[in-house]
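Dear Dr. H.,

I hope your travels went smoothly. While you were away I took the liberty of generating a structure for the chain from your last submission, since the lab meeting agenda had it listed for discussion. I wanted you to have the full record in hand beforehand rather than looking at slides cold. The sequence, exactly as received, is reproduced here:
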Amino acid sequence: MDKRPYIIALALFVLVVASWLLSGNHVQEYNEPSITAPDFFVEGLIAKTFDKKGQLSQRMTTEKLVHFPEDDSTEVTTPHFMLFDGDKPPWRVDAKTGWVSGDGELVLLQGGVTIDRPASKATAPVHIVAEDLRVQPKNNYLETDNKVNLTSLKNRVEATGMQAWFNKPIRIKLLADVRGRYEVE
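The corresponding predicted structure, in token form, is as follows:
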């Protein structure tokens, strides 16, 4: 029996396997993890900020917080903020989504943003609706370039663009296309 055909077949088989191994097509490539991938998340977060006197100044709750290490930013789902000022009624800010810069200097709120302050003996209730807001928490400042609606009792104001300072004294500046309806009792 002639063994040459078997040796040739075996040599061809070894050659094919060696070529396949050397081609590298079978090796699964390792990809670096995406730098936009989050490194942690928190569900049901409650965060509180206190002033220098130890008094509660801000409270934030959110259904979900997701942190991104690339720029140290954070995304939040259904954020809810309470801004406290002594014994005065707190301001409440709600949105569908939010984004917080890595240094905490900027917060972007999007999707049906509402700002509410209940009435007190000295102040009327305030209700503000905007599609989005840019907030500088450390400065108690917020703004939008888009439409905004303000309601207080029977008074209504619509505008395009708003700047608001929540430091003392509280100021709200409406930027363009301001239309209002005031009812005197």
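Two observations you may find useful: The radius of gyration is 30 Å. The chain has a mean pLDDT of 85.

With kind regards,
E. W.
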